[in-house]
Write a structure and sequence with these properties.
By secondary structure, this protein is mainly alpha-helical. About 60% of the residues lie in helices and about 5% in strands. Among the domains are: about 50-145, Cytochrome Bc1 Complex, Chain D, domain 2 (Orthogonal Bundle); about 145-240, Orthogonal Bundle (Cytochrome Bc1 Complex, Chain D, domain 2), CATH 1.10.760. The protein has a two-stranded antiparallel ribbon with strand order 1-2. A hairpin with a 5-residue loop joins strand 1 and strand 2.
Length: about 290
């Protein structure tokens, strides 16, 4: 009888252990679900509320400063002659706004072949608000995170050097035709100009590749991946540190300026020397004739 009771007791303990484990697991799941339900919706609602406030602030700034050219809903404005007064901003994305306004290109002082870079008219918070509003008009490229464009975010110096080498190949293939081998820029057709990128913020270089401002090509992530864009920026940043071993670089604009310098200065010196010789010879001859008389 005692043996039977002992066997029943062992069996009961074995049954309780799985039940206890299941109960602990159930309590853990309920606690996790309860905490998620308590905090997650609130934080999500808070984020949406903050974003809605940012969009509303951006719309107010947009209506005052941008709607004259781009329309009250960013749809763009066409003149009576059918010419585009201000392009549509639907689908250009927050990155385009951050680039154009952050570099001072917009608001534009006056229409022209080239939009000049100037001091920004808005602070970064205002730019973020307008970017949020334009982004709400239609899907488009977002403002990149710092890790996407910061060359200092590489894990090691070797990794950075490899990125510079890769970026140099991409830059020489896709960018030198307009921005020069040294990134100093150059003239473009129809009165345009490819600006120097040596003093451009890395974030704005990334955004320019992503959005293609003015006559620049658009390099989407399908054309040049985010990693390759970062490599290009690393190469551009490395060019800033390279010394100029050739003395005067003539604006680093290549053989055109070097040829002009050679012709103007070199031939100028030769012409001046030839003129001096001719004048000296004339005076000598006149002196000889006077002496003969």
């Amino acid at each position: 009888m005692r043996l039977l009771n002992r066997s029943v007791g062992r069996l009961s303990r074995h049954r309780r252990r799985p039940l206890a484990g299941a109960a602990v697991l159930l309590v853990a799941l309920l606690s996790t679900g309860g905490l998620y339900a308590a905090f997650s919706p609130a934080s999500q609602a808070e984020t949406e509320k903050d974003n809605a406030a940012l969009v509303a602030e951006g719309k107010e700034l947009f209506m005052i400063n941008c709607s004259t050219c781009h329309g009250s809903n960013g749809e763009g404005i066409t003149t009576q002659n059918g010419k585009l007064f201000g392009p549509s901003l639907i689908g250009v994305g927050a990155a385009s706004v951050d680039f154009q306004v952050g570099t001072g290109r917009m608001p534009m002082a006056q229409p022209g072949a080239q939009v000049e870079v100037k001091e920004p008219s808005f602070n970064q918070d205002e730019i973020d608000a307008m970017a949020a509003y334009v982004a709400s008009l239609g899907p488009g490229p977002a403002v990149p995170d710092k890790e996407q464009y910061d060359p200092e975010s590489y894990g090691s110096e070797k990794e950075k050097e490899e990125a510079v080498a890769l970026g140099g190949q991409i830059f020489l293939t896709n960018c030198t035709a307009c921005h020069n081998f040294t990134g100093a820029g150059g003239a473009m057709p129809r009165g345009g100009e490819a600006p120097s990128i040596l003093n451009t913020d890395p974030k704005h270089i990334y955004e320019a590749m992503l959005t293609g401002p003015q006559s620049m090509d658009t390099f989407s992530d399908g054309n040049i991946s985010p990693e390759e864009k970062k490599a290009v920026i690393s190469y551009v940043e490395s060019m800033k540190e390279q010394p100029d071993y050739g003395g005067f670089n003539n604006g680093a604009l290549g053989p055109v300026t070097e040829g002009i310098v050679a012709w103007v200065i070199g031939l100028g010196i030769l012409v001046a020397f030839a003129t001096w010789i001719a004048a000296h010879t004339t005076r000598t001859n006149q002196t000889k004739k006077g002496s003969a008389k």
